[in-house]
Amino acid sequence: xxxxxxxxxxxxxxxxxxxxxxxxxxxxxxxxxxxxxxxxxxxxxxxxxxxxxxxxxxxxxxxxxxxxxxxxxxxxxxxxxxxxxxxxxxxxxxxxxxxxxxxxxxxxxxxxxxxxxxxxxxxxxxxxxxxxxxxxxxxxxxxxxxxxxxxxxxxxxxxxxxxxxxxxxxxxxxxxxxxxxxxxxxxxxxxxxxxxxxxxxxxxxxxxxxxxxxxxxxxxxxxxxxxxxxxxxxxxxxxxxxxxxxxxxxxxxxxxxxxxxxxxxxxxxxxxxxxxxxxxxxxxxxxxxxxxxxxxxxxxxxxxxxxxxxxxxxxxxxxxxxxxxxxxxxxxxxxxxxxxxxxxxxxxxxxxxxxxxxxxxxxxxxxxxx
Length: 370
Hints:
Helices cover 81% and strands 0% of the residues. It has one domain (43-125, 153-352). By secondary structure, the chain is an all-alpha fold.
């Protein structure tokens, strides 16, 4: 005869209860993350300068600390650092834009010739040549002239928005650098009671991950651009400096940017110098990518968070789907910060003994500057 279960006996077995609890936690985390992403997209006019300022602060942090060690005032050190940022970015931007303008026409002509050559080799003459394409573009311009004029106005508004975002990001970078010594005190103030040290450690680890990523990416981008530019100059490929500028800019979007800029260099070499030089260009691009993947990444970014290439690609896809090009720019640093936070939490949970579970929270250490 079957016995009836006791009223105090749980309805579900322990394994099912643990699974249900974890599912509830995952749903809660996903809901909070979705609301956070929605708020960031809705308030992108304010979020974008903040994120740019954080990336700039992470990149310029060593310079600011070096000036502080020379006994400069914090405000003066932050101001000089921002001036250095404007000078370096402005000078590099001028060089890059000048190189792209000088060689941009050659690169576009070479790409057009490469496409025409590939089309002829594949027997696709019936698709029409570049003359038909130019005629179609002219017809569209004549037909939609008013729309084009309004597009110019829209473009001017976009330029104005970009300028305002850049100025705001620069001002926020100055304040972040100047007041970085107050970040630890703020973490202890806003954290729940007894959790100030944990919040400080998490914030410090996330910032260190972003700082290392920015420094390492800039250094690797510079080496990639120099190596590929030298190789293209040796092979006498037209527009070598412009292609090197594309490589430097594209390196800030891991994997995807290097692949696209390398493909452009190969197509230009194919159109201007022939099939053999294109193969040599392919070899140079592959050699530089192998140098980056097997030597530069492990050595330069050995102190930062290491992420699998699949994780980086997923982060890039997610960033592009949420915020386009800006999302791709911010996706990998944010993923690095998230992995740094997870690593810190894992380290602390592994180092927490059974006796520590019942002990009172330790007093926070004295605040340190970032």
